[in-house]
Amino acid sequence: QRSPTIRAFWQSLSPNGRGAIFIMVGSFFLAAQGAGIKSLAEQLTIWQIVFLRFALIGLIILPFALRKGAIRTRRPWAHIGRGVVGLIGFTSMVYAISHAPLATVTSIAFTRVIFTVILAILIFKETVGWRRWSAVIIGFLGVLVMIRPGAAPVDLALLGALLNAVAIAGVIVFLKIMSRTEQPETLVLYFSLFGSVVMLVPAIAVWRWPDAWGWGLVLFIAAAGALAQSCNVRGWAIGEASAMAPLGYFQLVFAGLFGFFLFYEVPDIYTYAGAAIIVASTLYISIREARLRGAAAKAPAPE
Which residue has the higher pLDDT, 12 or 191? Predict the structure, then answer.
């Protein structure tokens, strides 16, 4: 009897099984993108890395946006606001990755879930119970364990990672509002255009031509980011949210492995303890919100 083909094996998996594979692959590429940024920072400045990443993605998305007629926008000012917040977030992430261990930066980045809850309360007036508030407070305690204010010198890289998490939460709010009228290609195109234009002058001011390896890393970072986004979108679309949420934390595992084998990074006990607290709190928030959305979707419509 012939062995089953890859297609047959894939189709035999449950939706959660296929979604899990996508999420785990996406987590790998996100960690790989961080490793690529850290390597590229050894020969290029932060401003160049940010500019090249935005410019390359803009060139890639432009033909797709033209084909779908996604050049027009109804929200030019919203695109500028989203661009400012997103650019701050990505730049601070590049700075953090360049100066701090990958696993540490990745752990703090997960606090975006906490900040998203807070922004949802402030902007959308969402009601949050004591359970999620408790998880938010515990998550901040995890951040304090990692940063150790007062017990150690202030680490600007860790503050940059925290600023990135805040900015990502802000971007999520912008996307939640803008996705009602804007196409995905429009969102990506104008974000890339904004970042390219703003970062062009500082990048030119400190420009250094990368070597062949550097250009390869630039292409790798763009490809890894695109693949990660594609895999995560597919995974969340296929699988149940409550089942997919825990799998995103594999990014922390992959980041730790990349950091150890490529950059000889060994996190200290405070990083392990803080990361465990952050993961536990944000995982609880993600799963609880997914279950609440599922319960709301199953509730009978009012008569």
Answer: 191
Residue matched to tokens 């989203």: 82
Tokens (6 digits) for 22: 């996508």
Q: By three-state DSSP, how is residue 152 classified? A: strand
- The answer to whether 26 and 67 have CB atoms below 8 angstroms apart is no
Structure tokens that stand for 43 in this block: 């020969």
Strands (E), 160-224: none
**Average pLDDT of the residues in 135-160:** 85
pLDDT of residue 147: 85
φ, ψ of residue 152 to 5 degrees: the values are -145, 155
The pLDDT of residue 303: 42
The pLDDT of residue 148: 80
Give the predicted TM-score (pTM) of the model. Answer: 0.87
Residue 152's DSSP bridge partners are 149
DSSP 299: S
Model confidence over 200-234: pLDDT tens digits?
Answer: 999 999 999 999 999 999 999 988 988 888 888 78
Residue 254 is encoded by which pair of tokens? 């992959």
Residue with tokens 């979707």: 297
Beta-carbon contacts of residue 15 (< 8 Å; ≥ 6 apart): 238, 239, 240
CB 48, CB 207: distance < 8 Å: yes
Contact 258, 264 (CB under 8 A): no
H-helix segments, 264-298: 269-298
